[in-house]
Amino acid sequence: IVFRLNVSSEVDSPWMYFVAGFISYLALQAIFFKPVFMYVFGHELTHALAGIISGSKIRAFNVKRDSGSVVLSDVNVFVTLAPYFIPIYTIVLLVAHAIFIIPRGYFLFLLGMTVSFHTALNVFAISQGQSDIRRYGRFFSIVVVYIANCLVSGALLCIFFPVSLTEFMKKSANHSVEGVYLAWGLITTIIQR
């Protein structure tokens, strides 16, 4: 999707607003600070909302400056990993856009910022050794988070830019199969040596 949008984009295209927002957030974080409290609040809120969706009851919700916790009556893989692939502030922006109708350029800029916020702070959090990631095993959790982020990001881009979700899914499946064949070929070559 990104390569296709990049080829067809001009300086004042909607894609450039998104990219400018994405890069702007990264620059703000690099120059000033990581908004850790905001991330922690959104992270714990996402756990809580995923728990409610899964039928759990919230028993406790705590957020401090750089840590937080949610105690739920029941947890599962979805509840545990949801904050890493559900961009909660992007969802808040989508709701705000539906209510207030934010002008397209500003909206796409903010969309880029929220996606960048989600991406950058998740990478930071995962690198800190989150217990959520260790709960189901680091490899499994990171693979699930990666695939889910690809699907969520792809769906977002397909909604707001001229790319077909069907085409995205087909190409993703084809590239995944090619990747498996490539990995299998490398593994068998290494074993045969």
Describe this protein's structure.
α2 crosses α6. Strands 1-2 form a two-stranded antiparallel ribbon. It contains nine helices and two strands; from the N terminus they run αααββαααααα. Helix content is 75%, strand content 6%. The radius of gyration is 19 Å and the shape is globular. It is mainly alpha-helical and 193 residues long.
Please estimate the helix content.
over 70%
Estimate the global geometry from the Cα principal axes.
globular
Tell me the series of helices and strands, N- to C-terminal: HHHEEHHHHHH
DSSP E strands, number: 2
Uncertain ranges: none
Q: What is the first-to-last residue Cα distance? A: 38 Å
Count of helical stretches: 9
Helix-strand layout with pairing:
Elements: H1 2-8, H2 14-31, H3 36-53, E1 58-63, E2 68-72, H4 77-85, H5 88-100, H6 104-127, H7 131-135, H8 138-160, H9 165-192
Antiparallel strand pairs: 1-2
Summarize the structure.
It is built from nine helices and two strands. It has helices spanning 2-8, 14-31, 36-53, 77-85, 88-100, 104-127, 131-135, 138-160, 165-192, and strands at 58-63, 68-72.
